[in-house]
Design goal:
The chain is mostly helical. The protein has one domain. It is built from seven helices and no strands. The two termini are about 40 Å apart. This is DUF4168 domain-containing protein.
Length: about 160
């Protein structure tokens, strides 16, 4: 009886350990998902300055782009501890910033009016489809998104 109790306790400890935040995390999946969300966030922040309707137009059935992106970030971050999230967030944000700044820097030069025209074109032709894709993919395939996060939390990906 004692042995059965000890085995049950050990089994329970293993099961609980497998469900704790300390289990393996596929950081690459989390970083990749989060970097696309940060890129969409960065585009939205820049593009609403030249087109106040950008967030609404790039949004989906669950709200404007800013609202959906904030929701996505919350969902992703909720799957990680602070210790896990810190380096992943820093890396993902850095990657998104580098891509966004690279695209915007390519538009520099000429008069301020010419630069605004080029940024508006970037927002309409490039940023809006990217942001809309991130938002719509989340809206339309939410169960897949949740499963992907769950799998990444368990070290799969």
């Amino acid at each position: 009886m004692r042995r059965a109790a000890a085995i049950s306790a050990a089994t329970l400890a293993l099961a609980l350990g497998a469900m704790s935040p300390a289990r393996a995390l596929n950081e690459d999946v989390m970083r990749n998902v989060l970097s696309s969300v940060f890129l969409a966030q960065n585009f939205t922040a820049v593009c609403v300055k030249v087109d106040p309707d950008f967030a609404q137009e790039a949004g989906g059935k669950n709200g404007d782009a800013s609202k959906v992106i904030a929701h996505m970030k919350d969902e992703i971050l909720a799957t990680m501890t602070r210790e896990e999230a810190a380096p992943i967030v820093a890396s993902a944000a850095g990657a998104a910033r580098a891509v966004g700044l690279g695209m915007i820097r390519a538009l520099s030069g000429g008069s301020a009016e010419e630069q605004v025209i080029r940024v508006k074109a970037l927002c309409e032709e490039t940023a809006k489809p990217i942001v809309r894709s991130v938002v719509e993919n989340h809206d339309e395939r939410h169960e897949f998104f949740e499963q992907m996060l769950k799998d990444a939390r368990q070290g799969r990906g």
